[in-house]
Amino acid sequence: MSSPGSARIPQHVAIIMDGNGRWARQRGLPRLEGHRRGVEAVRTAMNAAREIGIRYITLYAFSVENWKRPADEVGGLMGLLEYYLRQELATFVRDGVRFRTIGRTDHMPAGVRQLLRETEAATRHFTAWHFILALNYGARSEVADAARAYAAAVAAGTEQLTDSSWEQFSRYLYTADLPDPDLIIRTSGETRLSNFLLLQGAYAEFVFTPVLWPDFGKADLQAAVDEYGRRERRYGLTAEQIKSGAQ
Ligand code: IPE
Ligand code: IPE
Ligand code: MG
Question: How far is 61 from 84, CA to CA, in rounded Å?
């Protein structure tokens, strides 16, 4: 956890990758071509994050609401995901990147689930770099899942209601082992969260950029990090308290 006002480089950056469809439409291409180019941008962002020194990067790849898209687009996205995971496993291992997911991944197609398991298992021991893919993710579903698991633990006697606190409850979220995001970026000019990390982002800084996701490169990530570095995170304190180093 970063302390108030500190750290120029965010430890954890989360990105809402948006604008693949518009990128394709502007070029008269099918939406899936935009998603294909989006995968290239994922590779670029991952490398850029390590070069900048960002230890945790979370990418919102598929929301619980995205199932409502046309079946051929959903099918195309699942195919791309499989292709990406197959290609990337060796890169994660080479670069020492731990891969994890957040979301209801048990509802993903069997082929994707198998690849997710393999990739997670092969990278489990890495500690320096962390890559988290939000798949079939929705913050409200996450809270519902966590509340169910918490209630079951209370019923089983492993949790005491008298100890109820955010620290205790947050251990039941998908992000239990992850630090909160310091910076949340959304591309494509939209300025909404679309059900992404609503609780974990309680004290995140936000950067919204008009760049469409397939065009998002290292310079754009660096610009967002620079903007983050100019912000003062106060966590409820006054600016004077931050200057005098009060916690
Ligand atoms: C983001 O791009 C990728 C996913 C949500 C899977 P979009 O597909 O939402 O692109 P736009 O918003 O239609 O341009
Ligand atoms: C959010 O983008 C989800 C992902 C980036 C995976 P959407 O394009 O689905 O969000 P809305 O529908 O514009 O809010
Ligand atoms: Mg969109």
Answer: 12
